[in-house]
Amino acid sequence: MADVTSDEAPAREILTYELFGTAVRELAQQVVDDGYEPDIVLAVARGGLGLAMGIGYALDVKNLSAVNVEFYTGVDQRLDVPMMLPPTPAAIDLTGMKVLIADDVADTGKTLEVVRDFVADHVAEARTAVIYEKPWTVIHAEYVWRRTERWIDFPWSSTPPLVDRRGGLAH
């Protein structure tokens, strides 16, 4: 992984699409090596969508779903607590399933905590997989690709959006 450093910016973790492919495969291998066979992969949108799809393919799990949780509003800017946004899957539909919750990063861990608590009373078992985990997270994922204290530049969010939904086309 490359470090991007300058006088103004602290070092960051840079995840390229190529490294993302490696991360997905290595995380899936961790799940296989652990003997865990999820019935469903539950993505935390938006960051966990690509990971959930890749892990789903690697583990031959076709049952994928997503929950949309908003927490980060910018670099180091977040809401007081994560909010689960509609539509959410009916927790009752997860009854008795072995669930693998997939997200891009466990930073504070509060997003994963909200999702884990949402499914906890219904599923047979829930485990988590993340690409990155920060040392201060309140939830430690069972499957982690890398641990870091740095801000992470993900390939899908390292450049600005093409459209600003609050004001038309981005420049």
UniProtKB/TrEMBL annotation:
Keywords, sorted A to Z: Glycosyltransferase, Transferase
Q: What positions does the domain Phosphoribosyltransferase occupy? A: 13-157
The name under which this protein is listed is Phosphoribosyltransferase
UniProt-listed CDD domains: PRTases_typeI
Q: Does the keyword Glycosyltransferase apply?
A: yes
Q: Which organism is it from?
A: Nocardioides immobilis
Give this protein's Gene Ontology molecular function annotations.
glycosyltransferase activity
